[in-house]
Amino acid sequence: MSHFYSKLAALFHRRMIFMLGVALVTQTPLAAQFIQGIDVSHWQGNINWASVKNAGVEFAFTKATEGVDFIDVRYSQNMAGASAAGVMIGPYHFARPDSFENDPLDAANEANDFVDAIQAYYQSPGLFLRPVLDVERLPDAHQIPIGTTQKSFLSQWIRNFNAVVETRLGFTAMIYSNSNYAINYFESDIAQYDFWLANWNYTPPSTPPSSLSGVWNDWDFWQWTDSWSVPGIAGPVDGDVFEGSMADLMQFLAVPASADFDGDGDVDGHDFLEWQRGETTESGSAGELALWQEQYGGSSPLIATKSVPEAPSILLVSIAWVLYGYKRNRA
Prior knowledge:
TIM Barrel, single chain
């Protein structure tokens, strides 16, 4: 008899965990929130990514390349360390349109060099954000072709760069730049690319007005400071935010991750149990829970209610699940 009650208790615990997962799926989404991030390069030296993650940082960007034939010495270490710690990370290229202004292949050369350095990270699902083109250098007006403005030259340079990235990777690079460039040096169609704004004149939760995003009228990521202090990093570091949920942030992963944690081909309550036990890649992180909520595809009638059942309903359904599980085990 005691064995029966032990099995019943174990089944009840598992079913209640499952019901909690269903409740999480059916809750009304939380209002938009700021998710903390950073961007780094060799200037930050050796980073303790576990400490960074524990400090609440959920995403990062790291310098990969600059111009042609330059790879940041900390690039590979940062990509590996961040992803191992459960921090979503993406590489960025520091654009040098001021290097070979009269070479029509300049942007393509830099793009190919960049893709050569980063493409290995985009071969399978992982915590790798889409890459970024860092635009903060402007060619001198007297060095560009006659009849061409700095604005038109730089805009075409960006188009040429992203044409190569999209051809080789299947997606384009986001654009990082400051308010001055966004307002004065980009033609309107550059807004087709996602935008990471640099503006240090505001501090979250206060945000820059839409006018400071130039042709975009808004931003996806925002670098709000160059002097943030984060455990695991010696010295100041750039601070960034993403406004939205973890599920929203995960939309920027280049190769979407899967919440099929148990590898059985679907996303269901068993995957939630894997997450609850910490038996997932990120040991039960908030990001994985958000991913599970986003991808949950069960056919339970509870999903169709679009609301969380009241306590008595949860209890009744839980008992039904227990009895159903016991019946299956007895069969």
